[in-house]
Design a protein that fits this description.
single chain, alpha/beta, FAD/NAD(P)-binding domain, Flavocytochrome C3, Chain A, domain 1, Methane Monooxygenase Hydroxylase, Chain G, domain 1, 3 domains, 4-stranded antiparallel beta sheet, 3-stranded mixed beta sheet, 9 helices, about 35% helix
Amino acid sequence: CYGIYAFNTELNDVEKIVANVTVMASGGAGHVYSATTNPVIATGDGMAMVYRAKGKVRNMEFIQFHPTALYHPGEYPSFLISEAVRGFGGVLRRKNGEEFMQEYDERRSLAPRDIVARAVDNEMKKSGDDFVYLDITMRKKADILKHFPNIYAKCLSIGIDMTKDYIPVTPASHYMCGGILVDEYGRSSIKNLYACGECSSTGLHGANRLASNSLLEATVFAHRIYQDAVENFNNNIIPENIPEWDSKGVTQSNEDVLVTHNLRELQKVMGDYVGIVRSDFRLERAHRRLFLIYQETEEFYKRNKVSVKLCELRNVIQTAYLVIKSAMQRKESRGLHFTTDYPNHADALIDTVF
């Protein structure tokens, strides 16, 4: 790797930037799904770019869904109702007010994220509702305000007083545990290219990340990348014949509707078939649907000038494809990947690498 082609949003053209060392720190891929707590830039760009450049990605099927995002249709991304609310005594309830977590796990509402997310998903599928309730009304108002001032203010802004009312919550995609395969110094399988943060797969998070470990990972690996890069960057000679970006024959299109529509369609497919609970049938169906969207978008990309929206759509599609392909290859349930066709652990522990 000798640098990047970068889209200049002010000049609306693509620039060549050469570098002895390149670090990918492009974040996660939450926007593969329509319900996500991730910022709008989390479109899997780094993972998609590295895969297209023939680099290796690992364990893309392990996507963490946070069980309790605030249910507020039209808000994008979703607002996170912290697990600390359940730690503080919050209880998950059906719409009729019944508690239900005891039917899934003896730890009830304090069970791990993946178990709670699957339970909430199952309750919603059974009832046909779009959310369940989180109840923290048993605690004193002063305590709630002291511990959760931001959550209280957010809920109040949409007419919910969490000291008196139940909070409507729904699972939302939250963290990508897989990503660009790197070693203990953040080096990817492409020479002179490092990856750091959520876009990387260091192996630290296994099949299910523990809360906040990602922050520690980012700081430790950023430092290790710096140490390794400082030692080696002088040895990286940049060739002189790297071409400029070639945009001959492309036209400026106003077909933004295709880009927006294909993104919505992709997110719907992923939410319906590649969500918290999967099966071979659902994954195959998603794979077929995605292939059509992929063909349309690639054709459009080749003929049209680059734009931020078009690049992000292309990357979201590529990342979604890797998630589906990885999930199809894992014939077991482990961590964040749960499939009804293989509900148990396999004997051998194998990484999914493409």
